[in-house]
Amino acid sequence: MSTTLTPRRAPSFGDGIADAVLDAVYETQRLYGHGAFGVPCPTCGVPAGTLCLARRSVHAERRGAYRQALEGRTLVPLLVAAGR
Hints:
By secondary structure, the chain is mostly helical. The protein contains three helices and no strands. 45% of the residues lie in helices and 0% in strands.
């Protein structure tokens, strides 16, 4: 008598939980102005701190504007100035 082991599949949580988590993350970032939500969207014209009009996505231009604004910032300006 031979026994074969069959691999078990990982439990799937489904799309419902993933959608809820994504909505919570976007809402938290919007509330506190973190990430791409800290700059206005050039595509749909919404101001900073609001969600894009596209549901569950952030426009690429908004992410690009955030990354450009981030390049000019320093985390600790006094330490950076002291190191120069």
